[in-house]
Amino acid sequence: MQNLNNIPQNELRKEFSDQVLAFRRQLFSKLKIKTVCGKPISGFGLGQLLSSWVESINSGVVPNLENSFDQVAMYENERLVKRSVDH
Hints:
mainly alpha, two-stranded antiparallel sheet, 2 strands, 5% strand
């Protein structure tokens, strides 16, 4: 299991692959897109948002949710642009 990402899918047992696929379908059918202020947010963006809030709280400031989301959107855009340039 530790090296699962390094094994080509065609080398896995069919039963295992079928069960993983069924699990993924079930999981994705029940998941909802996470949103903040009514806007969708990725896992990376959510992590950045929480980090920003913790930093604000630790500094004695009340986090401004809207400004935090705008900052996260900027980080997310920069990350996506960098990723598209790298590929």
